[in-house]
Structure formats: structure tokens, C-alpha cells
Amino acid sequence: MDLIENARLQAEVLVQALPYIQRWRQKTIVIKYGGAAMVDDALALQVMQDIVLMHFVGLRPILVHGGGPEISEAMKRLGKQPTFVQGMRVTDQETMEIVEMVLTGKTNKRLVSAIHQQGGRAVGLSGKDGNLLQAQKLESEHDLGFVGEVKQVNPEIIHSMLEGGYIPVISTVGVGSAGESFNLNADHAAAAIAVALQAAKLILMTDVPGVLSDPDQPSSLLSEMNRQQAQTMLDSGRAAGGMVPKLQACLTALEGDVERAHILDGRLPHALLIEIFTDAGIGTMLK
Amino acid sequence: MDLIENARLQAEVLVQALPYIQRWRQKTIVIKYGGAAMVDDALALQVMQDIVLMHFVGLRPILVHGGGPEISEAMKRLGKQPTFVQGMRVTDQETMEIVEMVLTGKTNKRLVSAIHQQGGRAVGLSGKDGNLLQAQKLESEHDLGFVGEVKQVNPEIIHSMLEGGYIPVISTVGVGSAGESFNLNADHAAAAIAVALQAAKLILMTDVPGVLSDPDQPSSLLSEMNRQQAQTMLDSGRAAGGMVPKLQACLTALEGDVERAHILDGRLPHALLIEIFTDAGIGTMLK
Amino acid sequence: MDLIENARLQAEVLVQALPYIQRWRQKTIVIKYGGAAMVDDALALQVMQDIVLMHFVGLRPILVHGGGPEISEAMKRLGKQPTFVQGMRVTDQETMEIVEMVLTGKTNKRLVSAIHQQGGRAVGLSGKDGNLLQAQKLESEHDLGFVGEVKQVNPEIIHSMLEGGYIPVISTVGVGSAGESFNLNADHAAAAIAVALQAAKLILMTDVPGVLSDPDQPSSLLSEMNRQQAQTMLDSGRAAGGMVPKLQACLTALEGDVERAHILDGRLPHALLIEIFTDAGIGTMLK
Amino acid sequence: MDLIENARLQAEVLVQALPYIQRWRQKTIVIKYGGAAMVDDALALQVMQDIVLMHFVGLRPILVHGGGPEISEAMKRLGKQPTFVQGMRVTDQETMEIVEMVLTGKTNKRLVSAIHQQGGRAVGLSGKDGNLLQAQKLESEHDLGFVGEVKQVNPEIIHSMLEGGYIPVISTVGVGSAGESFNLNADHAAAAIAVALQAAKLILMTDVPGVLSDPDQPSSLLSEMNRQQAQTMLDSGRAAGGMVPKLQACLTALEGDVERAHILDGRLPHALLIEIFTDAGIGTMLK
Amino acid sequence: MDLIENARLQAEVLVQALPYIQRWRQKTIVIKYGGAAMVDDALALQVMQDIVLMHFVGLRPILVHGGGPEISEAMKRLGKQPTFVQGMRVTDQETMEIVEMVLTGKTNKRLVSAIHQQGGRAVGLSGKDGNLLQAQKLESEHDLGFVGEVKQVNPEIIHSMLEGGYIPVISTVGVGSAGESFNLNADHAAAAIAVALQAAKLILMTDVPGVLSDPDQPSSLLSEMNRQQAQTMLDSGRAAGGMVPKLQACLTALEGDVERAHILDGRLPHALLIEIFTDAGIGTMLK
Amino acid sequence: MDLIENARLQAEVLVQALPYIQRWRQKTIVIKYGGAAMVDDALALQVMQDIVLMHFVGLRPILVHGGGPEISEAMKRLGKQPTFVQGMRVTDQETMEIVEMVLTGKTNKRLVSAIHQQGGRAVGLSGKDGNLLQAQKLESEHDLGFVGEVKQVNPEIIHSMLEGGYIPVISTVGVGSAGESFNLNADHAAAAIAVALQAAKLILMTDVPGVLSDPDQPSSLLSEMNRQQAQTMLDSGRAAGGMVPKLQACLTALEGDVERAHILDGRLPHALLIEIFTDAGIGTMLK
Fold it and tell me: C130 in the Ramachandran plot: left (φ > 0), alpha (ψ -120 to 50) or beta?
């Protein structure tokens, strides 16, 4: 009888998700996946489950990923020393080749396989497939080599995938006008994709609790911000480190008519499901 | 933090449903709804939630209902005395009119409204709509009047409803060749519909735990039966009362290539979800 | 040879209908059905034939009906005394239940069956199906109980039916925000549906020859009126009794861009076909 | 009031057509048009009306025509003497050119225009359009020149026309493997088209009452024949003149699974409507 | 090995066509076909090949033709003397009949057959089919009889043909409001069709090198003109003879948002392919 | 004038391709790409042009590639020594990772970019995307590690790409039942894909002239072979080295109802176009 009692509780939880399922059905959710949730095997498994569940109950999740540690590790094996300028990886020709092979040939396909292991159907894309992410060299003080920025998103290939019932998994390698590869910031690329798809939500997964009004006080988490507050935080210099591109990406998305942008703590198990299907506010929501 | 912990548990329950959602997606499930689950307000609400959830996660539930107590009550108000022969209501012209008004004009629309209240979209049908249930007089020793049996199911109208994204709710009034009404046994009608739709499952909701090998011993529940065992139970007379038409309906469904038939205890909260989305075996499954 | 001569005359009549068929093909015609044409068996049969013919030659008829005498009769059988205030039935909870059962469970299904008997395909709907007629309590001096007015029409379910090749037959029971039932004036409900479907015509069937300039002179029939004339007649109080809601419904339809509204004498055999497929002007046409 | 009484009679006639409309909806009817019905202006107008009406009420009429008198007249104007061998026009190169110009450039387009004048939509095709009628030289004792027989029907172009809502009007000029033109017997071509479309009916319009058991006795009309009777009549030589190809064409159609073949007296006004929409048996029906 | 070397050169030519194929894919090209390219057998064959190739590589060519010499020849055979006033054929009833028979019954079907001989699929249409070219009498000083001008183009039939995968071949006979035929100028008709289809290009094939600034100097070919230059040339009277309707037709097309209009020398083999698929500028391009 | 003369010659070449375009339209052609045609930049460019042209003129090319030299080069850079047993690369875990990164992350995307540079639209897939190539460990005498064989092809993702108008480019990495990667022989993988798609042709590009009856005599090229001859050559041991898997792959394709299989000399410029669009026989054709 315990078994049935337990099943009844499960059923009640399912029913509590009903209003959320209704609200988000047919909506596109662009998720920038990275950080601990990608490195930690248990968390990674949970993200895949969350994505597959979202897909099955009628949402349209799009996974956008960088590669972080795997790239540095591959470079180390090849005897190359990663160099960073203002948080951006200096990317010479040889580094770009490694970045692309790791992101598109290893990380991306690992995620595709993991989704299939959870019963979903996924297709991996890089920015080169269907010319998805047209890019150009990022102009900056220091020459960063093949670091690029998105010039145009051609989302037709994503629509083809969604119609076919596949979850798109996108590695953030852009393609230049001569067919060359560019290393793109994954937060920015995710925002550009969210705008091109007129997504309902952009979710950036991070390794922090969200936006803090006092970076040293985890308890100072801002659970909600509007655009102006985000802009002020950027202008005032109070946002620092990895939070800068995240806030910028959120603003890009909101200005491009994405309804909501989230900075989410990917270290929490099932952070995605919690955000989408429950009342519990985790991370920071921008609108 | 409790809130988030709770949300995490909820997320885990959702994820546990994943393999079941996958397995039953796009499958048609015909549910004969009746008994306590229809009379008890709390249970009724839960059935509606279960149906709506099934619909949202991609299954195709079809609700088939009788009317039981509401009919007898209406007859009493009109000063008519219900008469039963071998468990079947003797149905003269006036009784038939009452049956039809209650089933189609009251019970059916109450269910349709309840589904909308839970966020779903439903359409109520009787066997007359689109000539769904063509019927003829049931031949029997005693003249039962307008008690009928299904002669042919025309499921086109159900397909139209499913394509439109509606949950069909069907009252078991059949239509004769001259347009007259027939009172149909809801278990049999549900089985005929399940066969016509080539459903994956027929679920009969009852007020007993399932099929018992010893009717006096609830602990003698048979959690699984095959066709031959069901036939033997019918032939030997060990099945009695309301269990007879239920076992017959299950056999009709299985012989018509419905994959599974279930006799389910509708008195358990969320019995439908438990049956479809968990491992807990409740009631009797025939295959 | 007589037989062939007769057939030739028939053929000529068919050919004379050609320009009308052409003109009204693919057009939606909302017909409020009631009065003598509903009570008299011969007339009722002819209305069904007219509807089925309209459907077969490419028009899109929608039948909207009240229930009149059947409701009062049912109430009498239950020992309830109908009460009317200013022509509107005072509708307490118990009365509402009877109204709904009769309209939706008896009248509606009788019409559906009758259409099938003439070779057509029909589906009966109440305002609860697919949330078709969202209603709210009608505010008035006297508390009329569950008498409602249309707040919103959700015509998707009608489109699903038309695409499936079915003639929709609609009983005018509305649904409140809590799922409760409301008794709606059928003329008004038909007008609201005509507007929601952007119908080409609204036809209200009555038991009078049409709008009379002098109510006591049948010969004073106005075969055509414009909106202003109708408004003046309402404002001046010259329109009385059942003509008031009919003129109001016609105005609602015309203001909602329905091309034509008709008040038609349902006592004439085949009044619908005569109106649509011949030159003979019967009743009053408003534009 | 006379006007309305008359309208009522018209409505009744329309209603009597209901069961026929139902029965023939969506069915393809191939009509070989020729003889008096093509020469007499009043009859011709009626045929066009009949065709347009059939189209509007949901049938799929296909008009196949020869050109008879117009060809001989054009030849006379050009100083060519028509020569016939066993009822078949000897067709040299120059004659073929005239035949094609008259059939396809004059007769065909006159029919297309006449259908549009009646409110229908038509497209004229010759056997060359979309390679509709692939032909080869008819082998016979006497060299008949460019008299051909159908080798293959490619009905895709007809399906395109029907989907577009057009009535196909087909002139019976076939195309040889080198692109040359062939003069085809219109009865045979119509039969071949009926078979390729799996039509429900082939109707051959003639200037006789139908098949007579005694050619000299109009009263000896056979209103029905089966295949064997038709074959016997052909074998015995009792069928003569223009009746031979007509009976052969009917047999070809029936053997190719066309349901019914008719030899119809085109001199009767509205013969087509009478045949399709009334009980009056005119002409001979083969099945 | 020579064979392979040759094949390699062929392959290179194919590859050089790639950018042109890409640019014109899915684009509609209306081609007025006439003059030497229609009279000379070798040139005519090449035009058919060009059209079929354009169709196969994804363009949508529409062929519009007059009939020139064939009409005069047919008239001669019938003893009629062609009369021209200001370059326009005076068209009495009898002449109109001849014109229509030749254009629609001979020239048109010859072209349709020729396209099939090259492996394409074509359907011949006159302005009467689907009411494609509604026309009215051309008002002018001298009564020109049945010379007409386009009043309205109904391009639905062309869209049906294109969807079915057919190349439309159109003879320029228009239809009046009473179903009568009108002789249309083919340049003007082609322009009207190009506008109705919102074509990318109108190409007029002629027997001159293009527009010359000095009519006596072939070397004075203008390879490009804008609208104003064309208008000036018309106003100044420098354009003469057959060039007047051609320039007018080009202006009509450009004013109706056709992107480019060409006056092309049809005496050059494969002039169409050269214009569309190579860099070689032949004839005059107006934009 | 030279320019125009040249253009005319080009046009003639295009026209000569007509019958081949017709023959292969809508046909699926699976191309195993490798060897010199992949290493030599000029040849590689030509292959991309050939593929894009095939796509534009209506064929459905599918590119399947291995990675050869790029893999060995990457391994060398990582200090790994490639080991081969009977022509197959021994693939330990680390090697498999390198193979996958190079094939899917470098070679594949380079090809996708190159197709876009030629104006085409492509999407790169590995066997993991949409579970395209389900694989299992290849059983053999020596443990070859992660060398696999195709167990099942799931071609739905290819159909989605083709419908979207994309050229699929497939890297031959298979996915095991636990999501692990397998290194597949590209010839065999291409054959399995050709069978799953019921392709019209399988083309294997090699660095030899085709199948030679005497391996030492290039002049002994067999331009055609049937299945039995191929089987005999395999059984007799006369086929050696890389020719063995190629002949096996061809046999697999033919036995799976692929119409033709080709072993083609990829060192010839535009070998694909020559094979498809000209008469020149290059390489060996098996049927």
C-alpha cells in the first residue's frame, strides 16, 4: 500500500505542474548551458532530463553551449597555453581549430547522445550548419584573433529541426563570409538566437546564485530586475567578471522582444524544471 | 530554502514520469468513467485533472460516461420507478427521454465544463453526433424497451475533434436507423469505441479493487489476467454482477486488437495517472 | 412520356437555382431556428431538408436553436410553474438544470438526428463545448437568476466542425467563468455567433410574416429595412413583444459586419430555400 | 402570393434532388458530348447549365467532345472533300490540320466560354496538353491516314484541373510519339479517359433514343443492358452504324471498372440532369 | 580519353551556370515568343530546349505567343486578304475565327508538343481558359473589328499549372464579356501577364538586335535603358514600327513592378539561355 | 562577338545535359567522399560545385565522408602512433575521441562551409544526430577497440533535412546503445544509408581508375560489372586492399535495392558531374 500512496503523491505533483505546462506550451525557450551543470555528471544528467521533459510536454527548448574546461584540457594535451585578455580567450588559427573540434565534435555530440539516452531526439548544429550563425571578427583593443561576434542569425535550420520533432543543440562556432570559423561568446550567441526565434525565455545557466546587489553577500540576491536596473548595474561597474556578458546578453534579448531573461544557478539540481514548472523563484529574472 | 528543496522533489517526480510519457505519447486511451469517481466531487476533480494532464503531455484520452445516480434521481423527481432486469434498466419511451436528457444534457456538459475549468479543451458528443454510435434494440428474453447494443461505430467525428485539439467526452446514447434513441451499456460502448479507434488502452473505472479470484477476499486481487482466464471466469459463473459486462467489454476490446484493457479502482485518488505514469499496479490488467 | 416531361421541369428548376448557388457558395449562414417551424412536424422536416441541401450545394449553414414549448412542458411535468418577466423566463437553479437538459439533451439531439435522417452530417454543440459561448449574468431590474448574456464567442470548435464536413447545431446554453450554466436568448446568441464567424447572413425564423409597419396589418409588411429604420422602430416603441430582441439581434449582426439579416416567416414551407435560392421576397431583410 | 407559391414548388423540386446529390457527390462523370446537343443552340446552352450545376453541387463532370459538322464545314470552305470509309473520316495531313484547328481552336474554346457564361470555371485541353492522350495510328484495311487510337492516357493534368476547381473540356486530338497529331474517335477516347480516372459513369450523348432491340421501332428501347447483351448485339451484327463504336466504348469502360455506362438521347432538353438527378429513365444504361 | 576531356569541359560549363541558377531559381519569367525564332525550325527547337532547361533547373518560364505567318497563310488558303491599319490586323468576324483556330488550335499545340518532345511538360491555354485574359474592344480611329485589349488578367489557372509542374503556353486570344473572342497584341498581353504574376522578368523576342539609338546603325545598340529613356524615345517618335508596342509593353511591365524587361534578338541560337545563364549581354535590358 | 559565340557554346552544353537532368531529378544519390578529391584543394572545390549543381537541378545528393589524413595528422600532433590491423585503424578510447573530433568537428564542418561558399545550403550530421547510425562493436579476430559496424540506420533526420532544402553531409561516427562512439568504415556506412534511403545510386569516390581485371594494368578497367562478377572477384581473392570494402559496400547496396553502385576515380576533375550528366563512362558501374 506504501507503493500506491507514493504513486498518489507523484500524481499530485504531476497535477501541480498542469498550469505551468499550459502556460508554456508551444513556447520557445533558449537555454545557454555551461558551468558546473556541464562539468558535474549528475547535474548534467538532470539537465538532459529537464530538457527532454520540457520537449515532451510541448515546450520548444533550444540548447546553446560553450565548452570551457574541455577546450583548455585539449589545448594542454597539445602543448598550447591558453591566454585570456579581459576574460576572452585569445584565439589564434590553431586554437580556433581546437576550439571547433572540441565544441562541435566532442561536447556537442556528447550532449546529443545524452538527450537520446533520456529518450529524447536531438540534432547537433554548429553555427556553420545552414549558415546559422554568421559572424565577423570582434573589434577590440587587443587583437583576439578568431574571436567573433554574431552578425546575423539564419534560423531556418532550427525551424526545420523543430518541425521534425528534434531538440536543437547548438555549438557557438560562427562562420565568416569566407567560410572561416569564429569563436563566439555563448551568452551573446544564445541571446541572438533567442531574438531571431522570438523566444519566450532566454535562460543563462551559471555557477552563481544569480545577480547579487552586493557581490560578497549571497543573501543579497535580486530575484527580479528590470532593464533599467540592469543597465545601471553595467554602467556603474558594479557588475563584474562573467556577470557582464550575461547582463548584456539579457538586455539584448529583452530589447529584441524576448519576454523574459533568466540568470539561473545551474548548481541546483533540476534548476530548469524548477524555474519553468514551479513557483520557487531561483536566480534572477529580468523583464 | 525549504521551498526550493520541495521544488526539487517535485522536479524529480516529473522526471520519473519521463519514460511513461514517452511510451504513451500519441496513444489513444479510452476511459469508461463512472461510479464513485463520478459521484464524489473530490475524486471527480482529480479525474478531470488526470485527463487534462494526459492530454497536455501528448496522449489522446477519450472519456466515455454513463450517468447512474443522476438518472435515477431525475426519474424519481418525475415520479417514475426505475425497474431493473438482470442489472439492466427497463427503458420505456419516457424513461429513454429522461436518460438521454440527463446523460447528454446534464452529465456530459458538466464533464465538459469541468475539463475547461482545469485548463483543457473538451467537446461533448452523444452517439447521435456524426452518427457516432449506431445502435439496434438489444434482443433479450425480457423486453427491455429502448435498451440497445452498438451496431456500428463511425469514429470520423472523434478524429475531427482530436485534430482540433479537443478531448472528446461521449455520452452513451445510441441512434437507431430511424433516428430513435437507445440506452447503451457504457462499458460495452467504450469497448466498441476503443476497437474502432484502435486504441492502445481501454480503462474501465469501477468501485471495486479489480478482479478478485475470491469475491469475498479483497486480498485475492488478480493484478494481471489473459484472455483465456477472463473467458473461463465468465464461463464458470465466478464473475458476477457488474463484473460480467466489464470482463466482456475487456474481451471485446482485446479481440478487436486493443493492446491492453484495465479494470481500475476509481475510488483511489488519481487512479488514472497512477496507472499510466507510475509503476504501481492498481486494479487488473488484461492483455 | 409524362414522367420525362416532369423530369424536364424539375431539371429546369434546378438550373434556375444556379445563380443563387454560385452567389452563396462557401458563405456562412447562421439560422436561428424556432417557433412553428420547430413545433410542426412537417415544417420541421422541411427545415432539415433545406439545411441539408444548403450544405450539399456548398453553403455553410449553422443552426442555432432555443427550445420553447419543450422546456415549459418538461417543467410542468416536474411541477414547476414557468414565470416570465418582460418576456424573459425567470431561471432559478432547478429551472436552469431543466432548461439545459431539454435544450442540449433533447431538442439539440433531435435536430442532429433529423439532419442525419435527411442524409446530412451534423454535430450538436452547447455553448459549453469548446467554451463556445462564454456568458455572464444578465443585469436587469428584476433578478432573473441564471439568465445570461454572451460575453465572448470562441468559434474555433465551429471551424473544426465545418472543416470536418459537419453541420453545427447549437443549443444556446452559455457557460460562466466558474463553469455554471446560463440561459441565453437564442436570437442574441445567434447574432453573436454570426458576428464571430463573419457570416454572410443571419436568418431569424419567426411566426410572423416579418416586420410590419402597422402590427395589425399583415399587408403592411416591410420587405426591406436599413439599420436606421430598425433603430427608429426600436426607439419609438413601435416594435413590441418578440420583435424587440429580433430587431436588436439584427442590428448587432449588421454592426458586426454581417452582410444581411433576415426576419423570416418560418410558417411557410421551405422558407429557407425560398429566401436563399429564389427571387421571391419573404419576410424582412435588413442591411 | 403566386410568386411565393411558385417559389415553394421550386424549393420542393430542389429537395427532391437531395438523395441524388448525396449519391453522386465527389464522383467523376465523363460525358461524351456531340450530336444535336452540340449543334442546336438551345440544347447546347442547357448542356452547359447541366454541367455547371453538376460541378457546383459537388460532382466532377469531364466534358469530352468531337466536332462533327464544324469540321466538314471548315473543309468545305477550304475546298476539301470529306471522305469516309466505314464511318471513319479519311484524314490526310492537311485534313488533320483542319480537324485539329477546328476541334481545339474553335469548338473547344467555344465550350469553355459557354461554361464561363453560365458561371462555371473551365479549362480546355487537347490530348497534347500534358501528353493527356498518347495515340498511335489506327491499323485498318484501308489507310485512314492520321486516324489514331488511344495508346495511353496520362490523367495527371486532369487531376490538376479538378484540384484547381476547373471543369476539364477535352478535344479528342491524340499525340503520337513524334509529337504528330491523330484524329481520335471521341466515344473511344471518352471511354479511355473514364477508365484512367476510374469514373463512376461514362455518358455518351447521341441523337437516338438509346439502344433499340429493333432499330426501326423507337418503342423497342432497351432501358438496361448488361455486358453480355451488349457483346451479343455487337457480335450478331444487330448493332449498326454509329451504335457500334458507342457499344464498344461502353464495354471498354465497364471492363475497365467504370461503374455505369449510358447511351443518352441528347435531343432531350436537360438530358444530363434528368439522368443524374431524377428517377426518369432515359436512354440505355449498361452495367 | 578525348571523350573524358570533353566531358570535363562540359562539366565546367555546367558549373559556370551555378550562380545564375541560384539567382533565378523560383523566379517567374514571362517570354513573348515570336518572329524568326518561331519560323525557323532549328531556332524553334532551341527555344524549346531553353524553356525546358529553365523549367528543370527551377525557374518558372511562361511562354506567350502570337502566330504571325501561320495566320496570314491560313487566310490566304481561305481566300481572305489580310488588311493592316497602323500595323494592326483588321479583324472581322471570319478573320477572328481563323486567327483563333490557328493560334489556339495549331500554333499553341505545336509548341506544347515540342516541349514534350524535349522532355518537358506543358499545357496550352488561350485567354478563354479559366477566363485568363478578359478583353474588350480596342478603341481606335479606324474600326479594327475584333482587335481587343486586356481588361483583366485572372492568373489562377496559371498558378494551378505551375503547381502541377507544367509549363504554361498561352495563345493571346482574349474573351469578351459575352464570351466573344478578341485578337490581342502579344507583346501587350505578355506584359499584362507578367504584371499579374509579378514576374521577375519579361522577355520579348524579336528579329532585331535590340533597341538602336540610330535605327540604321546596328552598332548603335543600347544594351541598357531606364524607363525615362524609353518614354523619351516613344514620345520623340524615334521608336518606330514594331518597336513601339515592344517599348510600351516593357514600360507597362516595369510600372507594374516587374523587375526587368528585355528586348532580345531571337535570331541568335539559345538567346534565352545566353540571357539568363551567362554574362554575355545581348539585346536591350530595361529596368 | 566572341563573347556571344562563347556563350552560345555554353548554352549548347547546358542543353546537352537536359536528358540527364530529367532522368535523375528527384533521385537520391549517396556519395562516399574521400581520397584525393578530399585532400587536393582544387579537386575538393570541384566536388562541392558538383554537389551544389546536382542539388539545384533537382537531384538529392547526400555526402558521406571519412577523414583519413586529418585524423592521422591530429594523432601525430598528440603523440599517438596510428596502428592498423588488416587495413583497419585500431581505435582505443583516446583515439576514438580524436577521430570523432576531427571527423565531426573539423572535416564535416569544413565541407558544410565549402558548400555554402558555392551557394548551396548544407547541414552536417554525425551518426549521433537523430540516432542516425546506430552501431555495435565490430567482432573480429583482433580487438580493434571502438571500430564498429552499422546496426540500424534511422533516416528520419535525413528526410527532415531534404524537406528543408538542405544537403546532408554525414560523418561516419556511429552511436552505441550506451551513447558511446564507434568509428565506422565510410564505404559501408554510405552503403547502409543508401539502402535505408532507397537511393538510386551509391557512388564511392576512390583514388584508382575503378575495378581492374588485372590490378597492374590500368587499361584493364572494367566499366561495368554485375553482382555475380563482383562476388566472384571477392571470393577469388583477386580484389585486394581498399577494393575489398568498396566491392562489399557496392554489393550491400545492390542487394538492398539501390539501383546502381559506382566506383569512381575521384582524381578526375568533376568526376561526379561527368558520371551523372554525360555519356563518358568513368570508373566501374555495378548493377
Answer: left
Q: Test E117 with D179 for CB contact under 8 angstroms.
A: yes
> Is the pLDDT at B1 greater than 60, yes or no?
no
Nearest residue of chain C to residue D46 (CA atoms): C15
Look at the alpha carbons of A253, A258, A259, A263 in this order and tell me if their dihedral is positive or negative.
Answer: negative
Length of chain D: 287
Q: Which residue of D has its CA nearest to C45?
A: D15
Q: How far apart are CA D162 and CA F271, in angstroms?
A: 45
Q: What is the pLDDT of residue B86?
A: 75
Mean pLDDT in each 10-residue stretch from start to end of chain C (287 residues)?
81 91 95 90 93 95 90 86 81 92 96 96 98 95 92 98 97 96 96 98 94 85 94 89 92 97 94 90 90
Classify residue B151 as exposed, middle or buried by CB count within 10 Å of its CB (0-12, 13-18, 19+). middle
What is the C-alpha separation between D20 and C274, in angstroms, rounded? 20
- Report chain E residues touching chain F, CB-CB < 8 A: 3-4, 6-19, 21-22, 25, 46, 49-50, 52-53, 56-58, 118-119, 268-270, 273-274, 277-280, 282
Q: Which cell numbers in the block locate residue E122?
A: 506543358
Q: How far apart are CA C130 and CA C128, in angstroms?
A: 6
- B28-286: CATH number: 3.40.1160.10
ipTM: 0.93
Judge: A128–F124 Cβ closer than 8 Å, yes or no: yes
3-state secondary structure E255-287: HCCCCEEEEEECCCCCHHHHHHHCCCCCCEEEC
Q: Is A178 exposed, middle or buried (0-12, 13-18, 19+ CB in 10 A)?
A: exposed
Residues of chain D with Cβ-Cβ distance to E112 below 8 Å are: 128-129
Contact E179 D116 (CB under 8 A): yes
Distance of alpha carbon A183 from alpha carbon A90, whole angstroms? 10
Long-range interactions of C110-115: CB distance < 8 A, separation 24+: C111/C33, C111/C48, C111/C63, C111/C65, C111/C169, C112/B128, C112/B129, C112/C169, C113/B128, C113/B175, C113/B179, C113/B181, C114/B179, C114/C44, C114/C45, C114/C48, C115/C48, C115/C51, C115/C52, C115/C167, C115/C169
pTM of the model: 0.92
Dist CA F173 CA F186 (whole Å): 9
Is A250 in contact with A190 (CB distance < 8 Å)?
Answer: no
- E runs forming strands in D116-193: 122-126, 133-137, 147-153, 167-171, 173-175, 181-184
Q: Spell out the domain ranges in chain D.
A: 28-286
Decide: C62 and C129 in contact? Cβ < 8 Å: no
The Cα–Cα gap between F63 and F162 comes to 12
* Dist CA B239 CA C99 (whole Å): 41
Q: Side chain identity at A12, as an amino acid letter?
A: E
Contact across the interface for E3 and F279, Cβ inside 8 Å: yes
CA-to-CA distance for B191 and B204, rounded, in angstroms? 9
DSSP bridge partners of F61: F29
Degrees, nearest 5: CA angle A280-A286-A287: 110
Q: Is C160 in contact with B156 (Cβ distance < 8 A)?
A: no
Please, are residues D223 and D285 in contact by the beta-carbon 8 Å criterion? yes
pLDDT reported for residue D70: 86
Distance in angstroms (rounded) separating the CA atoms of residues D186 and D263: 14
Least confident of C62-76, C233-247, D72-86, D174-188: D72-86
Specify the DSSP class assigned to residue F138. P
Which chain C residues touch B124 with a CB distance below 8 Å?
126, 128-129
Instruction: Verify whether the Cβ–Cβ distance B13 to A14 is below 8 Å.
Output: yes
Look up residue D178 and give its three cell numbers.
513524334
Q: Percentages helix, strand, coil for chain A, rounded to the nearest 5?
A: 45, 25, 30
- For residue D57, give the chain C residue with the closest CA: C57
Specify the residue for cell string 572477384.
F233
